[in-house]
């Protein structure tokens, strides 16, 4: 069995959502072996840093927070859909998903992770139409994962208008964003997802280690 790591490395200087409220990464050495006999770091992160998960509370008042996300949703069989034909600015329409077998967990590969740290990562990434998301929801999706920054239109990234986030999160559907290495997935194989956020009390999301077992 192969294990594929779909997570970005978290380090100083990685891009974060270009909004004034999002914290940039600050990893700083505190103790060192030479000074206090051990290495330690302080870690300052936004909740939507690197490969991460959105909990309903991100957009829903009173919504579920990240520490109570059921592990049964985050771990288990997942379908991988190759949407690498979608390019910058493309929209996944209802017609593109209507013949898919919808499962509880679905991962959409756009190969957008290749733009990480290029300056283009947040620009015009492919996203889902509201009709496409409605179809997935009507057919029982519980977790939607992608290698782009968002299931929503890039022009909404700095506004409160994120219709797909709101639709999914209001129904307790988990969103995983910023996946890495999706081109390493062999579509002919079967996949099991393990996606683990930090158990942060009251948080709207968390950086997450996301891996696939492939067999
Ligand atoms: Zn997010």
List keywords for this structure.
215 residues; nine-stranded mixed sheet
CATH topology value: Glucose Oxidase, domain 1
Radius of gyration: 17 Å
What percentage of amino acids are in beta strands? 25-35%
* Secondary structure tally: strands: 13
**What is the CATH first-level class name?**
Alpha Beta
Instruction: Characterize the biggest β-sheet.
Output: 9 strands, mixed
Mean pLDDT: 95
* CATH second-level architecture: 3-Layer(bba) Sandwich
Number of continuous helical runs = 5
**Structural class determined from secondary elements:** alpha/beta
**At the fourth CATH level, what is the homologous superfamily?**
Putative cyclase
Order of helices and strands: EEHEEHEEEHEEHEHEEE
The hetero compounds bound to this protein are: zinc ion
What is the end-to-end distance? 5 Å
Kindly state the percentage of residues in helix: 10-25%
Shape: globular
Total individual domains: 1
User: Are there runs of 5+ residues with pLDDT below 50, and where?
Assistant: none
Could you characterize what this model shows?
There is one protein chain. With 215 residues, this protein is α/β, with parallel strands linked by helices. The chain has a single domain (2-214), classed as 3-Layer(bba) Sandwich (Glucose Oxidase, domain 1). 13% of the residues lie in helices and 26% in strands. Strands 1, 4, 5, 6, 8, 10, 11, 12 and 13 form a nine-stranded mixed sheet that branches. A two-stranded antiparallel ribbon has the order 2-3. Strands 7-9 form a two-stranded parallel ribbon. Helix 5 (163-170) links the parallel strand 10 (143-146) and strand 11 (174-177). Helix 4 (130-138) packs parallel to helix 5. It is globular. 34% of the residues are buried. The mean pLDDT is 95. Bound molecules: zinc ion (ZN).
């Amino acid at each position: 069995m192969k294990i594929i790591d779909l997570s970005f490395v978290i380090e100083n200087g990685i891009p974060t959502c270009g909004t004034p409220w999002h914290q940039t990464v600050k990893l700083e050495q505190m103790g060192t072996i030479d000074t206090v006999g051990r290495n330690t770091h302080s870690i300052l992160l936004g909740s939507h840093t690197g490969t991460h998960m959105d909990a309903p509370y991100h957009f829903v008042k009173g919504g579920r927070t990240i520490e109570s996300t059921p592990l049964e949703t985050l771990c288990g069989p997942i379908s991988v859909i190759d949407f690498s034909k979608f390019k910058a600015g493309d929209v996944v329409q209802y017609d593109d998903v209507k013949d898919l077998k919808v499962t509880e967990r679905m991962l959409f590969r756009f190969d957008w992770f290749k733009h990480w740290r290029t300056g283009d990562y947040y620009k015009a990434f492919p996203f889902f139409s509201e009709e496409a998301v409605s179809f997935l929801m009507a057919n029982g999706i519980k977790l939607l994962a992608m290698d782009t920054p968002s299931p929503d239109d890039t022009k909404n990234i700095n506004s409160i208008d994120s219709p797909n986030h709101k639709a999914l999160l209001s129904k307790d559907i988990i969103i995983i964003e910023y996946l890495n290495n999706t081109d390493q997935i062999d579509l002919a194989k079967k996949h099991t997802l393990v996606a683990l956020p930090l158990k942060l009390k009251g948080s709207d999301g968390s950086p997450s280690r996301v891996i696939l077992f492939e067999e």
